[in-house]
Amino acid sequence: MKRIHLLFLAPLLMVACQAKPTAEAATIQADTTLPYFLKKQRTWEMNPDPRNLEAALNAIKAFENNDTTAMKGLIADSVHVYYEGGEFKGKRSGFLKAIKEEMDLRKNMHIDMEDWKSIIDKDKNEEWVSMWYKQKWEDGDGKADSLQVYNDVQLKFGKIIKWIDYSRSYTTTE
Q: Whole-prediction pTM value?
């Protein structure tokens, strides 16, 4: 009699010990109406460590203040930057020189920060900070201008390694 119970118990134990998909994965797999599928399913979570957010916000503040000395400590030795109309991939010193040249063309820079999010993938391989803000300044002739900006900043060991800048100019009507 004990042998019969063990025969019935063994399959139950095997089924109970199998890994079950998470609710999120089950929902995504069950939804077959999605027009695209990811080759690698990634899961992101809010990063509870504030250091990446602080580094990204301090980099934006240094940009606002045209302070490449402050920005130097926040950028990795090599950085990859995407911006409207181009990209920069190279050493920190080259990036800071380019930023300084660009910022010297503007005065009275002001940033109105609207929102930010700091995320990390559950495997702890990637860390990003996203920021939404309005950038206002005056050109050399005193003419006011502005952009709506969205940045994705990737950090590694607390330093910015990638900076993706999306911006939209405001239309002017005359």
A: 0.77
